[in-house]
Amino acid sequence: MSRLATPVIAILMTLYATTAHADVITDWNQNALEVLKAANMAGNPWSRAMAMVHVAMSDAVNSVQGRYTRYASAAPAAPNASAEAAAVSAARHVLIPLLPAQKAKIDEAYAESLSRIADGPAKTDGIVLGEQVAALIQSDRATDATSAPDTYRPLTSPGVWVPTQPPLFPQYAQAKPWGMKSADQFRPGPPPPLTSPVYARDYNETKELGGSKSAKRTQPQTDAVRFWTQSNFGPSWNEAARQLSAGKGLSLAENARLFALLNMGIANTFITDWDAKFHYNFWRPVTAIRNGDMDGNDATERDAGWTPLNVTPMHPEYPSQAAIQCGVAAGVLETVFGTGSVSPFTVTDTVDARLQRQFTSIGQMAEEHAMVRIWGGIHFRNTLEVSEQMGRKIAAHLISNYMTPVR
Questions:
Q1: In sequence order, which residues have a C-beta less than 8 Å from that of residue 139 and are 6 or more positions away?
Q2: Among 43, 77, 188, 210, which is least packed, fewest CB within 10 Å?
Q3: Neighbouring C-beta atoms of residue 113, cutoff 10 Å
Q4: Which residues lie closer than 8 Å to 380 by C-beta, 6 or more apart?
Q5: Domains of the chain in sequence order
Q6: What is the CA radius of gyration of the chain?
């Protein structure tokens, strides 16, 4: 065998591994990501749309197969319908009202999916069922107060959160989460006092590793910071789930459940994060470090000219949505794929496909996803630890109460 043939075969085997077990759930996970990207939708509206699509598909599949409980209990049972057609129809009928400008792209994918399903009464009934289920999910989320786009109000000092200013996202603090009683159900306790040893430890770690001119941060850490932008957070966890699912060969119903729980959890991270952020109103490292002489802690030395590697978000520091998302995603995925090593999987930048990160466990990806917030200079370690546990509690709650096995 030639030297050239070996890498070619390896690439083909990798492609086969990620596509061999593809089904309409993973197909429409990818379709949804593509139309949301085309629509330039991000943040909370993005996560809301992904959750709606996948909850609708899960309910549609289980209205036929009855493997797992349904989120909308009023969804009609249709055991003779095509589960695939129902899922495809549900996804389409959720996405078009959310993204009317993307209708042509959605319908093109819809036609392609339906062309692979045999014509007949089962297909016809599945299409009708999917539309009915989509309508139920749309009704459930019609007044959830989470569809408003992110809007930023300029601050007096660009990139610096000033705790005395009013919330930038007041609507999210009152939003309806997925499968939770309220946004504050898993609200953590307060951040450590400014005079505490924990705060001094975290202050100095972020100051040393997260500065724009840090001599302590390694090049691999800097590369990780550059990759983990907000636009890669949710898409990367969905991409990881697709590859892990393909490797394990999950069934249609198992995939429907997995992606519904994953995206419900991710959607909840925005809602619960905004609730806690504006409850505690804790300052960001850039403000803290520039005012280190005002915190009453002798172990924190002020640096008036300190700047972080990342641009500081214009909302409070505690908790961290990124770390809550790590906890949620890892909590959901580890219940299916385990906490140990898995076959290597790769996540790709949504803008530049040449930028990738490879991992050999779910925990490894979660740790890097969280740590970049220290290396980028916009969070403290205690915040990340508390936030990850907050996410894991949300995941455990969803897993215990939604899409539970019926048989």
A1: none
A2: 77
A3: 20
A4: 191, 199, 202, 203, 205, 206, 285, 317, 318, 374
A5: 5-141 (1.20.144.10), 170-401 (1.10.606.20)
A6: 22
User: What does the alpha-carbon distance between residue 407 and residue 404 come to, in Å, rounded to a whole number?
Assistant: 9
Phi/psi of residue 218, each to 5°? Answer: -80, 165
Distance from C-alpha of 45 to C-alpha of 229, rounded to nearest angstrom:
17
Nearest 5 degrees, angle CA 278-CA 301-CA 203? Answer: 40
Rounded to an integer, what distance in angstroms lies between the CA atom of residue 72 and that of residue 137?
A: 7
- Number of helices (H) and strands (E) in the chain: give both, helices first: 15, 2
- Residue 22, classified by CB atoms within 10 Å of its CB into exposed (0-12), middle (13-18) or buried (19+), is middle
Residues 6+ apart with CB under 8 A from 306: 207, 211, 286, 289, 290
Tokens representing residue 76 in the block = 């009609």
Helix (H, G, I), strand (E, B) or coil at 358: strand
- Average pLDDT per run of 10 along the chain, which is 407 residues long? 38 41 91 97 94 98 97 90 98 98 98 98 98 96 72 35 44 80 97 98 98 97 96 96 97 98 97 95 97 97 98 95 98 98 97 96 98 98 98 98 93
AA letter at 179: G
Both tokens assigned to 100: 């009317």
Cis amide bond preceding 319, omega within 30: yes
Q: Annotate 307-339 with b (16+ C-beta within 10 A) or e (fewer).
A: bbbbebbbbbbbbbbbbbbbbbbbbbbbebbee
CB 237 within 8 A of CB 329: yes
DSSP string for residues in 182-204:
-TTTT---PPPPTTSHHHHHHHH
pLDDT score of 157: 36
The C-alpha atoms of residue 60 and residue 40 are separated, in whole angstroms, by: 27
